[in-house]
């Protein structure tokens, strides 16, 4: 029984990783590629690690496998965010099928300022925060 | 079980090859960084499968270090791409 | 937070006193520690709401795993079928999360769920810019994101 579960987990993890790789190869622009790597690859590694935990079934190993899963799930979105933002601001082009971009008009490439588009009435009553530079 | 392990290793190896194609093709530096990121995740998975195959639990320590290094590398690459601009976060 | 620390301490005490270091016994210790804390929480101000927060956290983890799997299946389907069904775009989502920790948590959750990837937060921290892969129905996407943010923030407030 446990062998079957383990095998299923391993295979589905491997398939998800393969899908991530196919996505990185096929998808048309940087941001859509990041969708494939963050989600599919993180899920694939998590499934493989659950299989490892089932295989050894000792407290120390299960704790370590769980640690790897939590670590991957915590860092994958952060890495995607920093790389995606850097790529976007450095000027990698979006795919021609992109329907909407609400970020571009709010971003100033010279000062690197990113507005929220909500400040018109908020600025009037904006009080300086404590950690604002003088 | 042995066949399943071989099959999943083959699938992951194929995935590594595909990611490598993207690494070579580029076209821009961020794309290559994404491919490298995928590399490290794939290698974590491969080490997990190998630790099942060889019954050696210590390989899991390697995966932890691998994941940590990949994360630091991604942050470093992102800083490099933005050339340490005025955004301080 | 203080509740979780007490729970772990009680678990440790349980494991040491029973002298059985197996995973099952650890789980039993966690459950008994939780029950003890739930019984005394009305007497101790520092523990207020701990008993309610733990089931909410478990429900949230289940919800999150479900979202992660459906997200992956949808993106996977689009990757393997030759014509592109996606309509990607960058949208601005107003945030109700205020502190740095809450914004980080919400942004990470958004990166891991259905076809969305958080790109950046505006300088005044009121708007999160999200790259979405399926913008066919923008209203329902925004509703889903707001629902997830509400559920995530309910864990801390």
Describe this structure in words.
The complex is a heterotrimer of chains A (134), B (89) and C (157). Chain A has 134 residues and is mainly alpha-helical. Chain A has one domain. Helices cover 66% and strands 4% of the residues of chain A. Chain A is built from four helices and three strands, in the order αααβββα. In chain A, a hairpin with a 4-residue loop joins strand 2 (107-108) and strand 3. In chain A, helix 1 packs antiparallel against helix 2 (30-56) and helix 2 packs antiparallel against helix 3 (59-90). Chain B has 89 residues and is mainly α. Helix content of chain B is 83%, strand content 0%. Chain B contains three helices and no strands. Chain B starts with a helix and ends in a 7-residue tail after the last helix. By secondary structure, chain C is mainly alpha-helical. Chain C has two domains: 2-47, no CATH class; 50-153, no CATH class. Chain C has helices at residues 2-18, 23-40, 50-80, 100-112, 138-153; strands at residues 89-94, 116-121, 127-132. Chain C has a three-stranded antiparallel sheet. Chain C is elongated. Chains in contact: A-B, A-C. Strand 1 (100-101) of chain A pairs parallel with strand 1 of chain C, so a sheet runs across the interface.
Write the layout of secondary structure elements.
The complex is a heterotrimer of chains A (134), B (89) and C (157).
Chain A: H1 2-26, H2 30-56, H3 59-90, E1 100-101, E2 107-108, E3 113-114, H4 119-122
Chain B: H1 2-25, H2 29-54, H3 59-82
Helix pairs in contact in B: 1-2, 2-3
Chain C: H1 2-18, H2 23-40, H3 50-80, E1 89-94, H4 100-112, E2 116-121, E3 127-132, H5 138-153
Antiparallel strand pairs in C: 1-3, 2-3
Membrane topology (chain B): Multi-pass membrane protein
Keywords (chain B): Antiport, Cell membrane, Ion transport, Membrane, Transmembrane, Transmembrane helix, Transport
Subcellular location (chain B): Cell membrane
Task: Please provide a brief summary of the model.
Chain B has 89 residues and is mainly α. Chain B has 3 helices and no strands. Chain B has one domain (2-82).
| Oligomer class | heterotrimer
Q: How many helix segments of chain B?
A: 3
Number of strands of chain C: 3
Please summarize the sheet with the most strands of chain C.
3 strands, antiparallel
Question: How many structural domains are formed by the residues of chain C?
Answer: 2
Query: How does the overall form of chain C come out from the CA principal axes?
Result: elongated
What share of residues of chain C is helical? 55-70%
Poorly predicted runs of chain B are none
Average pLDDT figure of chain B = 85
Shape of chain B: flat
Describe the strand arrangement of the main beta sheet of chain C, using strand numbers. Answer: 1-3-2
* Helix-and-strand structural type of chain C: mainly alpha
- Low-pLDDT ranges of chain C: none
Find the structural class of chain B using helix and strand composition. Answer: mainly alpha
How many alpha or pi helices of chain C? 5
Q: Determine the most extensive contact between two protein chains.
A: A-B, 52 and 51 residues
Largest sheet of chain B: none
